Amino acid sequence: MDDALRAYGAGHADGLAGEADEGRLADPDYRTGLTDGQLAKFENELIAAVRRALGEAR
User: In the chain, what are the domain boundaries?
Assistant: First the structure.
């Protein structure tokens, strides 16, 4: 369980950074974290773009 959480966390961090560790892509926990991190990055960028469009400072 700890290994799975570490792999997920590493994948999530890599997804937020916009990078993938080619050596870990075979690990399904890493891939799940990577996908979740990429989604979180997209959501953050989308919210920032909406706020800029609405003229909100943040």
Answer: 2-54
Count the helices and strands in the chain (H runs, E runs): 2, 0
Asked if 13 and 36 count as a contact pair (C-beta separation under 8 A), the reply is no
Structure tokens at 22: 């080619």
Tokens of 39: 């989604």
Residue 16 near residue 39 (C-beta atoms within 8 A): no
- Tens of pLDDT, residue by residue, the chain (58 residues): 899 999 999 999 999 999 999 999 999 999 999 999 999 999 999 999 999 999 976 5
